[in-house]
Design a protein that fits this description.
By secondary structure, the chain is an alpha/beta fold. Helix content is about 20%, strand content about 30%. The chain has one domain: Rossmann fold, CATH 3.40.50. The chain has 6 helices and 7 strands, in the order H-H-E-H-E-H-E-E-H-E-H-E-E. Strands 3-2-1-4-5-7-6 form a 7-stranded mixed beta sheet. Helix 4 links the parallel strand 2 and strand 3. The radius of gyration is 15 Å and the shape is globular. The chain binds S-adenosylmethionine (SAM). The site of S-adenosylmethionine has 16 residues, from loops. S-adenosylmethionine binds next to loops.
């Protein structure tokens, strides 16, 4: 049996008030959402979510999520690493969250796609993750302070690099606001 982890990220829970305080006109993008645990949490707090992933089966499982207003949920099957396409081009969100996923070619697009005053939540593995196992490919591992360097012109609300207990791992976590 596949075990689905539906517990929302502690980073998101800790900073939910920032998202609740946003004026929402575009929705929040859960980029590479997987099971959608984080987007589901935002839905439960009344925020509209665009769930985006390359895996259509994972997205299909999200169609059963119960919401009072169907307009709160958008499912988007997309390849964010496509060489033929630029999926975020021309798209705008009030916030974008990325957990446990890294494709460096997407960072500038993520920055462009957040509206002024909007937020980014980013948490993924650092190079120290190798102590715990996979991923070990450098393409998927952040260097020290890499996240803060990407968002250096934004207001950094929260940043840390730390061991995460569940699952045992080493991650960098950032919350930042676009000027
Ligand atoms: C480790 S999971 C993280 C899921 C979720 N963000 C979380 O933390 O629970 C990585 C996700 O990235 C998705 N993914 C991988 N490559 C992708 C791509 N090129 N475009 C869109 N999604 C992709 C996978 O399908 C998977 O659901």
């Amino acid at each position: 049996m596949t075990h689905l982890n539906l517990e929302a990220s502690a980073l998101l829970v800790r900073h939910i008030t920032l998202l609740k305080a946003l004026e929402i006109s575009h929705g929040v993008l859960d980029l590479a959402c997987g099971s959608g645990r984080n987007g589901r949490y935002l839905l439960s707090r009344g925020l509209p979510v665009v769930f985006a992933d390359i895996d259509g089966e994972k997205l299909a499982s999200l169609s059963a999520v119960e919401v009072s207003d169907p307009a709160m949920v958008t499912l988007w099957e997309v390849d964010f690493e496509s060489k033929a396409d630029d999926p975020l081009a021309g798209k705008t969100f009030d916030a974008i969250m990325v957990f446990n996923y890294l494709h460096r070619g997407l960072i500038n697009r993520i920055k462009q796609s957040v509206r002024p005053g909007g937020l980014v939540f980013y948490e993924t593995f650092t190079e120290q993750q190798r102590r715990f196992g996979r991923p070990s490919n450098p393409d998927f591992l952040l260097k020290p302070n890499e996240l803060t360097a990407w968002f250096e012109t934004w207001q950094i609300i929260h940043y840390e690099e730390r061991e995460r207990a569940n699952p045992p791992s080493h991650v960098a976590s950032l919350v930042a606001r676009k000027p």
